[in-house]
Amino acid sequence: MADGTGNGGATGQQLGIRVADERDVGALARLRRAWLEERTGHPVEDPGFEAAFAQWWRVELPRRTFWLAEIGSPRSGYTAIGSINVLEIVHMPRPGARGGRIGHVGNAFVLASFADRGVPGALLTAVVEHARTRRYRRLLLAPTAGSAPFYRRAGFVPAGDGFLVLEPEPAGTTR
Q1: Of 67, 79, 57, nearest to 105 (Cα)?
Q2: Are 118 and 71 in contact (CB under 8 A)?
Q3: Which InterPro entries match (predicted)?
Q4: Are the C-beta atoms of 87 and 94 separated by less than 8 Å?
Q5: Burial class (CB in 10 A: 0-12, 13-18, 19+), 79
Q6: How far is it, in rounded angstroms, from Cα 141 to Cα 18?
Q7: Which of 3, 11, 161, 166 would suit a FRET pair with 24, their CA atoms being 20 to 30 Å apart?
Q8: Are 120 and 108 in contact (CB under 8 A)?
Q9: Is 4-153 in CATH node 3.40.630.30?
Q10: Model pTM?
């Protein structure tokens, strides 16, 4: 692994966080499926999901960075146990001011059996370092009620309710 960030204790397995690439699309899709199945408490049948995920990955890759948390060893191999991504939003410059970038943190997930082993913090550390390197003005996220305390402990503060949303109806429908 490119970035060992800890160890798995007596098992000799090491935790690593690295930027995901094309070889990781299947692992990321499996984690996304696991995220839903952990929340619903049952398997979700969708035979086309992995192909749809791979297509989404290819569309999003130019503007997103994905990280993968893995545990294992060179001898035994590695298993994906968590992921996170950041959508880079580049603001249009205006006269007298530079544009700037922000990052929207999304889809953070760690398998429940690893959630209390420092994996979420290791993933978030990678994201914050990326934001510093890319000189983002800020990182934004929309935490769940359960994850908000974790992000607050990491230094995130409330951003207010200044968001508007429009849910357009499909073309050809009227209200």
Answers
A1: 67
A2: no
A3: Acyl_CoA_acyltransferase, Bact_Acetyltransf, GNAT_dom
A4: no
A5: middle
A6: 21
A7: 11
A8: yes
A9: yes
A10: 0.84
